[in-house]
Amino acid sequence: MNKILYKEQLSETVYLMRIEAPLIAQERLPGQFIILQVYADYGERIPLTIADADPDEGSVTIVFQVVGKTTQLLCMLNVGQSVEALVGPLGAPTHIENFGSVVCVGGGIGIAPLHPIAKALKAAGNHVTTIVGARSKELLIMEKQMAACSDELIICTDDGSYGRKELVTQPLEEVCKRETPPDLAVCIGPPVMMKFCCATTKPYAVPTVVSLNAIMIDGTGMCGGCRVTVGGETKFVCVDGPEFDGHKVDFENLINRLSAYKEQEANHICNLDALR
Q: Number of folded domains in the chain?
């Protein structure tokens, strides 16, 4: 049992929770994730990136978007209630060092997993330029947290309600065109966004890391559900990733696999009132 210590609704469908998990909080590193199951005896297991951790409190922070049955059940839990099964930290952590200048790009819910990475890169002495994007101002999350770990913060919205009315690839290209281009780019968001971010950085030879969100079941490399193609080779997101060289990722393969169960997922969207 992992008790919920704090809950906040960040936007219409996005929630932040701090969950009691002292051992995970002590061991986790930027880029790693947990797998949780709302009810231990039944239901699916879903991977969520650790957006932050507090070893003193013994908690990990997760940020999730309500998109299906499990996230609907999760958002219905309140402070004092518990998530019955939670394991981690899983996955290979982000490689952190002083690269020099780094540009971090987050789109939508991808801003949450980007936060601990940008924070660690800043602490390692890098000059961090952060670009975050959302469909509108109301859907933008974690602005203050990203500003706190960035030397420069650029905000984009699709509808122009806040920041620049542009896709994140526009300021990313501007940063790559600077007299001194970044030494590294880290891009996390929807697969299509990451795909075009990689297409933007490639002509400027900026090494680009992406964090993939493939379908995952066990999180230990046994089921093969999260397989992706990277550099022509099969990799497993749960143990080989979740981070990979974005210029080598077969994004079309990833996008096709993510949509494989779209019909089944749509059929299992729950009526919240019926679940209460």
A: 2
